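To illustrate the input format used throughout this study, we show a single complete record. The first block contains the structure-token representation of the backbone; no residue identities are included at this stage. The design step must infer an amino acid for every position from geometry alone.
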């Protein structure tokens, strides 16, 4: 992504210029005496899903407690004083990267509201593709919105339901939503989880010392020593209370279509998503890439960290040595340097440094997981040439991204996606590599254990590669809502 204004008036260096920005992560636990501390640990494990803000809401039997902060979990929820303020045996938490709504404290989740039946807190991973349309109608009917996040819509819809039981009101609200979501919600008696009818966003159920847990990924269970029980099914609502677990399936049955980018980029490599170890899948993507577009070379070099498993798979399949030709600096800030153009040009070198002894005089295969705008790819290829690489063959372990995402992944408009506006040869010339190749759509499906993409009933949500959006896109197709989207961005 190009440099953009940040909250403190500085500029965001192009350190993540060619990355798909993370979504969000959710966590909840019922009935544990240290619910807030456990939730904070779970959020630590989910930090890769969102680094802009974090929040926890707990309930102590009488009242709800909320701590919502800008920044990382470790910077805000590591001190005992903060955790001690979050008393109670029930808690939910959220890590956020904003895809709808600005990066400001009033948008930090979990969001909380007092309803006529008691308090309700909710945290959301995903994006509602009719969220702004619903919001516009709610405001027209007299609702007062406190945030610019699409998640607030669920609070209003629950509040306006005429059903008597909370879970019926929650279900009424979900039936009005379009898009992708995994929710964790908290009332004074229940922990609630829900996935959209296609299961685009992940949610798992775990158990720790007899207490049930909901989390975006299994890695959040591992960090606290919890046992994985199962995935929450697509279109399923689970209600956890003193009576145990209740499963509700209010939607017409559909075939699940989980987001394929969970396997390519978003999920942590040590997570298991929909029964598939993410690390193994990424290695198989690299192996498929080697079989589809092998090239004579001396060494395989990953773009760290996301390109590492695919590079290992490529190297093993191709019989070419794997080496760390790029070293990542994990301690890079973004606003401590004067925002001059010359420094922005050096930004990528702050995060990635060439390991000259590995690449000098070598024909290298450079492996990354995706190309978005292509700006960082240009700099990394040039870095390899400056370090003395004889040839640079760029290989991408996913298909070309030709369409934007509306389900919780921050992608540019289509006109700013390199693969949507350039041919393969034009991309190669722009990036400056000797050859360029992407994994095919069928290749990525084979890496997932399928024989290929089922054109009649695709097994995954893969619209970024195919343009096949599995839900309606009401907000994108409504002129009034588009105008509201622009207005909300200006309000911030």
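Output of the design step:
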């Amino acid at each position: 992504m190009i440099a953009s204004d940040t909250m403190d008036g500085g500029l965001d260096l192009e350190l993540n210029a060619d990355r798909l920005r993370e979504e969000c992560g959710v966590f909840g636990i019922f009935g544990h005496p240290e619910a807030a501390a456990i939730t904070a640990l779970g959020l630590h494990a989910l930090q890769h899903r969102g680094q802009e803000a974090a929040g926890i809401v707990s309930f102590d039997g009488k009242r709800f407690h909320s701590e919502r902060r800008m920044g990382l979990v470790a910077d805000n929820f590591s001190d005992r004083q903060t955790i001690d303020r979050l008393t109670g045996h029930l808690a939910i938490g959220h890590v956020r990267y904003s895809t709808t709504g600005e990066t400001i404290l009033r948008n930090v989740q979990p969001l909380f509201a007092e309803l006529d039946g008691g308090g309700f807190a909710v945290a959301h991973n995903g994006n509602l593709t009719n969220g702004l349309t619903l919001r516009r109608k709610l405001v027209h009917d007299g609702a007062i919105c406190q945030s610019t996040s699409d998640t607030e819509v669920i609070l209003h819809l629950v509040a306006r339901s005429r059903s008597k039981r909370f879970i019926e009101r929650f279900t009424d609200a979900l039936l009005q939503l379009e898009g992708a979501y995994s929710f964790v919600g908290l009332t004074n008696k229940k922990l609630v989880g829900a996935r959209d009818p296609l299961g685009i966003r992940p949610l798992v159920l775990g158990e720790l010392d007899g207490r049930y847990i909901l989390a975006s990924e299994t890695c959040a269970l591992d960090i606290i020593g919890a046992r994985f029980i199962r995935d929450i099914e697509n279109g399923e609502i689970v209600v956890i209370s003193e009576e145990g677990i209740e499963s509700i399936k209010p939607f017409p049955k559909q075939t699940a279509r989980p987001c394929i980018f969970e396997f390519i980029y978003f999920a942590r490599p040590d997570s298991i998503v929909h029964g598939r170890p993410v690390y193994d899948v990424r290695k198989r993507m690299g192996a498929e890439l080697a079989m589809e577009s092998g090239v004579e070379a001396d060494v395989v070099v990953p773009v760290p960290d996301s390109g590492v498993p695919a590079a290992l798979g490529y190297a093993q399949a191709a019989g070419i040595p794997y080496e760390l030709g790029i070293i990542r600096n994990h301690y890079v800030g973004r606003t401590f340097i004067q925002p001059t153009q010359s420094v922005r040009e050096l930004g990528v070198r702050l995060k990635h440094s060439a390991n000259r002894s590995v690449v000098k005089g070598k024909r290298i295969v450079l492996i990354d997981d995706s190309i978005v705008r292509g700006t960082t790819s240009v700099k990394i290829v040039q870095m390899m040439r400056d370090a003395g690489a004889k040839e640079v063959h760029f290989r991408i372990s996913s298909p070309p991204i030709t369409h934007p995402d509306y389900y919780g992944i921050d992608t540019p408009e289509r006109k700013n996606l390199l693969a949507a506006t350039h041919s393969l040869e034009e991309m190669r010339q722009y990036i400056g590599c000797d050859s360029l190749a992407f994994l095919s759509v069928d290749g990525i499906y084979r890496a997932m254990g399928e024989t290929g993409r089922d054109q009649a009933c695709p097994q995954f949500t893969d619209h970024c590669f195919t343009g096949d959006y599995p839900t309606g896109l009401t907000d994108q197709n409504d002129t009034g809502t588009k105008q509201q989207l622009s207005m909300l961005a200006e309000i911030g």
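Structural context for interpreting the output: The chain has two domains: 14-257, 280-466. The mean pLDDT is 90.
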